[in-house]
Specification:
The chain is 41% helix and 21% strand. By secondary structure, the protein is α/β, with parallel strands linked by helices. It has helices at 44-51, 85-90, 100-108, 122-134, 152-164, 176-182, 204-235, 238-243, 245-260, 321-329, 363-368, 384-390, 407-419, 437-449, 461-467, 487-494, 509-514, 529-556, 561-564, 566-601, and strands at residues 4-14, 19-29, 33-37, 59-64, 70-73, 140-144, 168-172, 185-190, 193-197, 281-292, 295-306, 310-313, 336-341, 347-350, 374-377, 380-383, 425-429, 453-457, 470-476, 479-484. The strands form five sheets. A six-stranded mixed beta sheet has the order 5-6-7-3-8-9, with helices on both faces. A six-stranded mixed beta sheet has the order 14-17-18-12-19-20, sandwiched between helices. A three-stranded antiparallel beta sheet has the order 2-1-4, with helices on one face. It folds into four domains: 4-206, 3-Layer(aba) Sandwich (Rossmann fold), CATH 3.40.50; 275-346 and 424-519, P-loop containing nucleotide triphosphate hydrolases (Rossmann fold), CATH 3.40.50; 355-421, no CATH class; 529-601, Valyl-tRNA synthetase, C-terminal domain (Helix Hairpins), CATH 1.10.287.
């Protein structure tokens, strides 16, 4: 086993009452790719700060291999004391480091280096912070929510960049696709402790469910044992009680074990308050256009949105996603063309502008408007404490000022406010921001069961694939096109990845002007990161599946298996069919990609 670059041993930390971390272990060796998973508030960011040496635990040891360089990406970068983004990035270089990567990475990320840090948008600040940690080519990268505020173009660029580097990675992210493509090891931070599996995030959710189910079985066994021991204590002979002091002490230990057990965190209960049904036609836009000064943001766009549709809008920051959604919902008038809203539309919008909330107001006041102790949910009063519990807030947090909430907690609060209103049209601007994976699962279920229509903006590829029925994407010069299906379906139909959009990451201004939108042709098509990765990994996957199939077939070749163990025979038969199905799908995908690669290489 390779020696660790960084190692945390027996880390413990308590803020207030319940311990945040208790005996946590984290080991990262060279080139390992670790994703750190856990609920909002479970201590992921705190543990990363301890690993970076920025926070001292109450107990525990931190070891860093001598000479190893570490770079840490915080959620909120500090730009104080620097005049330009270039100065900020160069300040992260070590003695003797080449300054060229600082210039190169800023250019790749769409920045010039002359920007004033005080005037940066959230996405620009995140790109500058990424350039700062990537420029020194460190041995270990500790990244806390690296995809926050990034558009899809930049996320895919970052994914490819990190995938090509040989440094060790520790990632915290709510972006499933990003984690699945990059991680090889998963560390689950749960109830103050860390569990580790030597597999990437794609295997995490099934493994987590197995762990929690096993825990539940163990607690059930413990409860039964306590009942049996208590029965013995109550109804046993008096003299036996006196002699079995050890057994009585064991019962006390069992009770203490039961009392100290911290059950798994509950599941959020998200319910959208559905109003009356809208008409079959929800929105009809015909030839709408919108320009600002000399720039056309939307050009002659037409769409019909029917009741029950789930429409996703994607594109780079600055492409005009918010303008388009405002045009479609009637919040903004088009320069030309018409927008018609259907009959009986009851619209609710999720406002992601956190500054719209009073930071000094409490959670309860934010939900009730400072009036009484009840929230109107679906037109009926519900006690604020009960409603907060549905969104995983504790009773103590009801009087907590909003300024101390984490990003994920604020995201849940915004959802709670929006979903309390009756609606048959939900308009969601980045609803997944800062939500933990469990809450994301529940949100996906909610949108799947919602009886009305959904229009949303998102940069989360996996969320889009799971939720939407069509995707609207920009083609440049104000042209927007609707594609059937999710994000992956859009890429397959489009014949190119999002890097051909404008504004274009990793391209200077002159080059961006030269790449005017043109009809997609095979000559301009390039394999994207996922296609290249699939071409490299699918042969190994197919070989492994063939070995699995051969093993199952060898077991089924035993003529006595059916009579001896019918259950095992059925299980192996089902596993064989499943493996054969997966192999067929992998072969089809590999063949299609290989044909595509040859076509592109031959022009």
């Amino acid at each position: 086993m390779a020696p660790p670059l960084i190692q945390l041993k027996d880390i413990a930390l308590t803020f207030g009452g319940t311990p945040l971390l208790t005996g946590v272990e984290l080991t990262v060796a060279a080139e390992e790719r670790v994703c750190l998973i856990g609920r909002n508030g479970s201590g992921k960011s705190t543990l990363l700060k301890i690993a970076a040496g920025l926070m001292e635990p109450d107990r525990g040891e931190r070891f860093v291999q001598p000479g190893a360089t570490i770079r840490y990406l915080p959620q909120e970068p500090d730009f104080s004391g620097v005049a330009t983004t270039l100065a900020y990035v160069e300040a992260g270089l070590g003695p003797g480091d080449d300054p060229y990567p600082a210039h190169y990475l800023l250019q790749q990320l769409g920045l010039t280096g002359d920007e004033d840090p005080a005037s940066l948008s959230g996405g620009e600040a995140r790109r500058a912070a990424l350039a700062r940690v990537l420029a020194p080519s460190p041995d270990i990268l500790l990244l806390d929510e690296p995809t926050n505020h990034l558009d899809l173009t930049t996320i895919e660029w970052l994914e490819a960049e990190l995938g090509s580097r040989r440094c060790a990675l520790v990632l915290i992210s709510h972006d499933r696709r990003f984690l699945s493509n990059l991680s090889r090891i998963t560390v689950w931070l749960d109830r103050g402790q860390a569990r580790r599996i030597e597999r990437g995030f794609s295997a995490f959710e099934a493994w987590r469910d197995e762990v929690l189910a096993e825990e539940e079985r163990d607690q059930h066994k413990l409860d039964r044992k306590i009942v049996a021991e208590e029965h013995w204590l109550r109804y046993g002979v008096s003299g036996r009680r006196k002699r079995n002091v050890k057994r009585l002490a064991g019962l006390h230990d069992l009770r203490q074990q039961r009392r100290s057990y911290r059950g798994a965190a509950g599941k959020a209960t998200l319910t959208a308050s559905s109003g009356e049904k809208s008409g079959a036609l929800v929105i009809e836009a015909k030839g709408i256009s919108k320009s600002y000064d000399a720039r056309t943001v939307v050009r002659e766009f037409s769409i019909r949105v029917q009741r029950g549709d789930r429409v996703g809008i994607v594109g780079p920051n600055g492409a005009g996603k918010t303008t388009l959604i405002n045009l479609l919902t009637g919040a903004l008038a088009p320069d030309s063309g018409t927008v018609r809203l259907g009959a009986n539309i009851d619209m609710t919008t999720l406002d992601q502008r956190r500054e719209a909330l009073d930071p000094h107001a409490t959670l309860a006041e934010a939900l009730t408007g400072g009036r009484g102790d009840h929230v109107m949910v679906d037109g009926k009063p519900k006690h604020v404490m009960s409603y907060l519990k549905d969104f995983l807030f504790t009773q103590e947090q009801a009087r907590t000022p909003l300024e101390v909430l984490s990003g994920g907690e604020r995201g849940r609060l915004m959802l709670a406010r929006a979903l309390a209103k009756t609606s048959n049209l939900l308009v969601l601007d980045e609803p997944t921001n800062d939500l933990d994976l469990e809450t994301l699962d529940v949100l996906e279920e909610l949108l799947g069961d919602y009886q009305g229509t959904v229009i949303l903006i998102s940069h989360d590829r996996d969320f889009l694939d799971r939720v939407v029925t069509s995707v609207i994407a920009p083609e440049g010069d104000g042209v927007w096109v609707e594609y059937a299906g999710g994000y992956s379906d859009m890429l397959a139909q489009r014949g190119a990845d999002l890097r051909r959009e404008a504004p274009k990451v990793a391209a200077p201004a002159k080059e961006a002007r030269d790449t005017r939108p043109q009809p997609p042709t095979a000559a301009k098509r390039r394999l994207n990161f996922n296609e290249k990765h699939a071409l490299e990994t699918l042969p190994k996957t197919m070989a492994a599946l063939e070995e699995t199939i051969a093993g199952h077939q060898a077991k089924l070749a035993d003529p006595s298996l059916y009579a001896r163990d019918r259950k095992a025979f059925d299980e192996i038969s089902a596993a064989l069919v499943d493996a054969q199905t997966k192999l067929h799908a992998a072969e089809e995908k590999w063949l299609a990609l290989e044909i595509l690669r040859e076509e592109l290489e031959n022009g």
